[in-house]
Amino acid sequence: MLAEPAVADVDLPPFDRAALDGYALRSADGRPEIRLRVVGPESDEDPADLEICSEEAAQVMSGDPIPWGADAVLGLEKTRPEPDLGTPRLVEVLEPVSSGQNLIRRGHFLKSGTVLAPAGARVRLAMIGLLAAQGCVHPVCYRRVRAAVFAVGDHIVGPGEAPVMHRERNAAGATVVAPCLRWGATAHDLGAVAEEDLDAALSRALTAPIVVVLGRSTSTLRRALLRAGVEPVFSGVDLNPGKRIHYGRVTGESGRVENHVFQMPASPIAALTASSILIGPLISRLQGGPVGPPPVLPAVWSGEHRPTDDRTWSVPVRLEVDRNARLLATPIEYRGKDDLLGFSQAEALALLPPRSGPWTGGEVVEVAPLGPWPPHDS
Prior knowledge:
Elements: E1 6-7, E2 17-18, E3 22-25, E4 35-38, E5 56-60, E6 72-75, E7 79-81, E8 90-93, E9 103-104, E10 115-117, H1 128-133, E11 146-152, E12 156-157, E13 168-169, H2 171-182, E14 186-193, H3 198-205, E15 210-214, H4 219-227, E16 231-235, E17 239-240, E18 246-251, E19 257-264, H5 268-286, E20 297-301, E21 312-321, E22 327-331, H6 340-343, E23 348-352, E24 364-369
Parallel strand pairs: 4-5, 11-14, 11-15, 12-13, 15-19, 17-21, 20-22
Antiparallel strand pairs: 1-10, 2-9, 3-5, 3-6, 4-8, 7-8, 16-18, 18-19, 20-24, 21-22, 21-23, 23-24
Helix pairs in contact: 2-5
């Protein structure tokens, strides 16, 4: 994301150039049946070094700079060169030409001083040529946000370890890291730590602007967060799944927020929902993006769902485009927040508003894709 506006420093094109192959001349000499003396540079010279005088013309190719004194280009089909071998010495004008004809004027596409992109704009691949043409080869951009993630609990082991003796793998850590990477952050999964090591783990994690702590909200964890200087902001979110999410922040001496700290259960589905809907937009904002909720798409609901309660329900759905080019959201077979197999089929989350429904099919809903849409393999 650009941290400051990118501004043009030269006109585009930077000089008058020929719009087609032909002869550059003075429009006053562009009268039928007049013969013009052809002048031109040697093969290794630039047409811009020429100066066209009265009753003279210079052969140019499309894109060439216009020689001094010329104010028009006459196409090859509207001229008759003298019948001879090699470069003609004379060319006859067959049709009149007006001033500015077949020219691309300096600054036609872009004037120096024009704002190419405002601060906060994402640098897209299509912009690279434009920025390079304007000397903006090292644009000032926002630094990629770092996010640190760790789980709390003696019963949690890493994804690559064997979960023996009533232990379970830390699947939620990877589930948080993946959407953080998608939003452009640098994410670090610090693994699982015991409660007795919380202070050291928090000290390490708080070197990143965003910290995600996975685990139950125990008194030990709450005291460790307070010792680390985390000021509680809210506890609980009207979101299903993911209602047991807590958020706090660390404020520096200048009064600026230095760390955003999220604490949530170590449930992969709840963690992915919270990361996509809450943490992702925060990453975008810290990197200069817009303020607001995650980008959503309108889709036609294709299925059934009971009415929602006081929370926003994020329902896993598949996406497809029907023959009428409508985006359809079809709920998957999903038995709750522990059904990782069922949830793995989801391509998006349908966000059903509080106190709404029931849905029987045909309603328009908002969906937040879980990854690029359409997918790269479609």
